[in-house]
Design goal:
Strand order of the largest sheet: 1-2
Number of strands: 4
Structural class: alpha+beta
Distance between the termini: 35 Å
Shape: globular
Strand content: 5-15%
Number of helices: 6
Amino acid sequence: MPSLKNKTNFFADVYTLVKQIPRGKVATYGQIAALLGSPRAARMVGWALHVLPDSQLHLVPWQRVINRAGRISTTCQIHSKNLQAELLRKEGVSVSKRQGNFYIDLAEFLWHP
DNA sequence: CTTATGACTTTCA
DNA sequence: CTGAAAGCCATAA
């Protein structure tokens, strides 16, 4: 009985894909969205991580996901920019701070699947 | 069905 | 690259 009721696993797919990001590398929301089949659903990727349950926080390297400008866009108080920057630095990713925002050299640390 | 929102991206200057 | 404005996709109500 082929229940083709393809559930909206968009969020789950995001988590699965983010988990595959190698340590020391980062990916952009658009890149994740493109791999999911929707290059324009970058916002959904960000939202997926926004609603990411605490139980998945330590399973999904959400810190390795940044915007196209190589900047941390987190507006979340829980997942603060400072925290994300710290985690990335511990993974070997160079994070530059500028005007309260963190910048990452995508040319060096962008994930190439 | 429409409306509103959001951890984005692209285009223009 | 940075900043401002418009666009696009998925979810919730």
